[in-house]
Amino acid sequence: MTLRVGLIGLGTMGKVHAEAYRQLPDTQLVAVADLRPEMRQKYEGTDTVVYCDGVDLIAQADVDIIDVCVPTHLHRKFVELAAAKGRHVFCEKPLARTYADGQAMVAACKQAGVKFGVGHVVRFFPEYAAAKRVVDSGEIGKPVTVSTMRGGGGFPTAWQDWYANFQWSGGLVLDMIIHDFDYLRWVFGEVERIFARGSAGQEANRFEYALVTLRFKSGVIANVEGSWFNHGGFQTKLEIAGQKGLINHESAESSPLRAILKSSDTAAQVAVPESPVDKSPYLLEIEHFVSCIQSGEEPMISGDEALKSLQLALAAMESVATGKPVHL
Amino acid sequence: MKIGMISFAHMHAYSYAKSLLQIPGVELAGIADDNPERGERMAAELGTSFVDLDELLARADVAAVIICSENSKHRYYTELAAKAGKHVMVEKPIATTVADAQAMIQACADAGVKLQVAFPCRFIPAVRRAKEAVEQGRLGRLIGIRASNHGRNPGGWFIEKELSGGGAVMDHTVHVVDLIRWIFASEFTEVYAEADSMIHGISIDDCGLLSMKLENGAFATLDPSWSRPSAFPTWGDVKMEIVGTNGVISIDAFKQRLDVYSEASGHRYLPWGGDMDFHLVKDFVDTVALDREPFITGYDGLKALEVALAAYKSADSHQVVNI
């Protein structure tokens, strides 16, 4: 059975999700919504119905899935409307800007009896999934210390510069390194206490930097680095040290392809590293969500799961603000 | 110039002694050691004599000593050497308590001898280049630093608290803390830390994480864990990711290395970068010869020790500790 999809928000992630629905055999992108005409243009005159306002899409489009790819502070509104309409919901991470919003969204989907999945896509990155398999196999013994890094590609640009609005995006900790919090929870379980330092609120706040210390109930000590500064390009790092071994990943060291090509006759040659894979992690996460709707199973990253990761990010932000550790 | 060595308990003594032998005009005057077997073995290997400590310190022709004993014995040997009028270079950490460190600084001041603490990382060329860039203002205002000084479990007295004063946090905090103080000319004001014994089945901390704040408003984390497994191609690392308002400086201090793969050793790194221990020892010799202020003072040693001790306090209380 083909599942009909309505996608709200055609920004960076919306485009990626649209491509995933195009590739999946069991889904059809039947409606899209975006406030910006230039984003809608691609779909004008196609079989996909185009809306300006996502509220209208939810009200009018005959779909099975609503995919929410709008700025974080708007997640709740669209998820609640979609759930009330009885649609399954896939929502970009982070779940919400506040814990109360997140709780309301989870409750709305439960009450409506619809599937709710959240896009903590790092769990679907092959290098991160492989690292978890190694940990679970026991090959490196009991994990002890972990460090991660994410960012370094500069500040993200988007609709109305919403990433720079702390009340909308929550800044670097909520938007970016929640990826690592969610991954670490998946691999190492729940967190006992968290301490974070960050540059949020400082004069250079468009270029935020944060260093977070997490202590897990299992004993694991983790250090999470996030940066919207320019470290020479977006990159990720993951090191897991165990009692009997160590795993290390550095994205900057694992690009099998590096092209140094002119983009036009006059342009300088710029090195562009790439790490192409058979199936993109974004395709995998949506494929998983679609399969859960078909099978009736609960998505791996359910609303409840995403709520726990949201709680960690909010605790880290609280620690940055207060200068004190937060005990969970 | 004749320089004696007191104790080879810390393995860095060997490298310092080799460095002394390379400096023209410097003579290794002898090795005193409360472990006679070790002292005699090292003396034979280094072509010098195993000597009695009192006799070494009584010799008028010995200008200085290098102390590489167990950490908790640093004060005892430093005070003896100072009383005998010998200049002192002492292995890091300067001591295991603030009181001991202060007493050492006082003893050397009273005796009019120089006290230098062995922070060889200040002599890594990449570190010096980074410091130059910072001093030229090219980094802008410092925002934060993510650092690691990983290592392996050194075993022996390092894991006996009464001799070492602490495990991985004591062993590997002071290097990076000293570098940050030196590069940015700012003191640490507070520390939050996690520390535990979870890797090697020993009764002293073998892993941890420090989150620190500087007087200049910047922050830093440091991983001092003895977390490199035996299969890792090298002993550990000193790395710093330094983020400022004008850019980012990354230091991987020991990255100048060959990858060597062999049937005998598997995969190992063969370092080919500068010899920081030689430059540290050479600087100490010059300090004595030219009668100048030590480049790395007892106070520097004390300030680094304070951060390590605050980290233990925080790890026990789970609270931020002010320095």
Brief sketch in words of this structure:
By secondary structure, chain A is α/β, with parallel strands linked by helices. Chain A is 35% helix and 29% strand. In chain A, a hairpin with a 6-residue loop joins strand 13 (257-262) and strand 14.
Main attributes?
heterodimer, A: 328 residues, alpha/beta, seven-stranded mixed β-sheet, six-stranded parallel β-sheet, 11 helices, 29% strand, globular, B: 323 residues, five-stranded parallel β-sheet, 10 helices, 14 strands
Instruction: State the assembly state of the protein chains.
Output: heterodimer
Strand order, biggest sheet of chain A? 12-11-7-10-9-8-15
Largest sheet of chain A: 7 strands, mixed
Number of helices of chain A: 11
| Structural class assignment of chain A | alpha/beta
Q: Give the amount of beta strand of chain B, in percent.
A: 25-35%
Structural class of chain B: alpha/beta
Q: What's the overall geometry of chain B?
A: globular
Distance between the termini of chain A: 43 Å
**Uncertain ranges of chain A:** none
Would you tell me the overall average pLDDT of chain B? 97
* Largest interface between protein chains, with number of residues from each side: A-B, 42 and 37 residues
Fraction of helical residues of chain B: 25-40%
User: How many DSSP E strands of chain A?
Assistant: 15
In N-to-C order, the SSE pattern of chain B is: EHEHHEHEHEHEHHEEEEEEEHHE
Strand content of chain A is: 25-35%
Unreliably modeled segments of chain B: none
Biggest pleated sheet of chain B: 7 strands, mixed
How many individual β-strands of chain B? 14
- The neighbouring-strand order within the major sheet of chain B is 11-10-6-9-8-7-14
Rg of chain A: 20 Å
What would you note in describing this structure?
The complex is a heterodimer of chains A (328) and B (323). Chain A has 328 residues and is an alpha/beta fold. Chain A contains 11 helices and 15 strands. The radius of gyration of chain A is 20 Å and the shape is globular. Chain B has 323 residues and is α/β, with parallel strands linked by helices. In chain B, strands 11-10-6-9-8-7-14 form a 7-stranded mixed beta sheet. A 5-stranded parallel beta sheet of chain B has the order 2-1-3-4-5, with helices on both faces. Chain B is globular, with a radius of gyration of 19 Å. At the A-B interface, strand 7, strand 8, strand 9, strand 10 and strand 11 of A face strand 6, strand 7, strand 8, strand 9 and strand 11 of B.
